[in-house]
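Case 363 in the screening queue. Each case pairs one protein sequence with one candidate compound; here the compound is iron/sulfur cluster. For every case the pipeline is the same: read the inputs, emit a complex structure as tokens, and attach any notable structural observations.

Predict complex for case 363.
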Amino acid sequence: MSVEELKSWISAHKDEIFANDAVGTGCFSYLPGEIIWAVTKRCNLKCKHCSISEVGSGELTTEEGFGLIEDAAKLGPVKFGFTGGEPLLREDIYDLIEYAASFDMQVVMATNGTLITNEVAKRLKKAGLERAAMSIDAVGSAHDVFRGVNGAFKNMLRGLKACEEEGLSVQFFTTVTRDNYSGIPEIIKFADDLNIWRIYLIYLIAVGRGKQISEACLSTDENMEFFDYTATEQTEVNTWLKPICNPQYWAYMEDKEIVDRVDGTKFTGCTAGITRFHIFPNGDVAPCAYLPVKAGNIKETPFLDIVRNSEMFKALRARKLKGHCGTCKYKRICGGCRSRAYATSGDYLGEDPVCSLWENQRD
Ligand code: SF4
Ligand code: SF4
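Case 363 output:
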């Protein structure tokens, strides 16, 4: 792949790449904000890399959930995402989706897909869900090994087809580790053949159950090779490949002069605690799913008060970063993955250790 080829691909796909849903390229992003609620810890699978297992127990009631949704809607036309655990295990999930969809918000759901039959897909669509994001870590039975349950791949595929038949948009979530790295091209081809709109290629953050497999995290060099691979592969497929937990991907692209900020693109880098907020099942509010540090709990303090007044969120918004990220010229457009900084140093304002772009900036 030449730089020119990738530039030309980006130019041809600019509308979709830099549409609102991809603004802040480099990680999750949606303006004016993304509110993600993990409605339950319960799950029917046993994924090796699950990030939620260390979070406290308890679930918000339906009424508390309605209150959260109302507060989120006051922030403007945000994206409101339901996740888990497996959100379909919550009995009131259709009521919650329907309530969220009654506001001017994009309503999405992350699911392992295995519980979605045609009937379920029909109910989700009717409730107002716009898109289901399904997790896939390999094509075929290797996916079952990652997910810890036989038949997980077959059932996810059934869910995918049911969503398509009912007119529900689907995207993929793929956690990229040393263990499945060699299978990533197959996943991308699989997605492209199915006309999947987008894949989030998610760096493994060693939190929750992921701590037990931290040696499977890509090193800095491997991650930079992954960026090269992703950029190259992007010119071959229509599925939009979006690295997640890797805001430095777009700093890297700018470093290589593949994209340019003056090109009308909007980079916001890591959005944790800035425009992205995660609510754990027990009501704890955190900056990101992979950053389990409590800014407050909505059973005690209204969600909007936490968003506005949390000292953690204020520090993240001000990008009071340390180490290489603090002095990096890409601080504003990248900021490093705050979850990875936290997972490795215990400091969510610390430097993101999986980056070498700062090295080119030395005198
Ligand atoms: S040093 Fe930090 S801010 Fe700079 S590109 Fe790397 S991760 Fe991003
Ligand atoms: S903390 Fe990491 S995973 Fe979360 S929004 Fe920031 S870059 Fe993405």
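Case 363 observations:
- The pocket of iron/sulfur cluster (ligand 2) is lined by residues 27-28, 244-245, 247, 270-272, 276, 288, 290-291, 337-339 (CB under 6 Å).
- The chain is about 35% helix and 15% strand.
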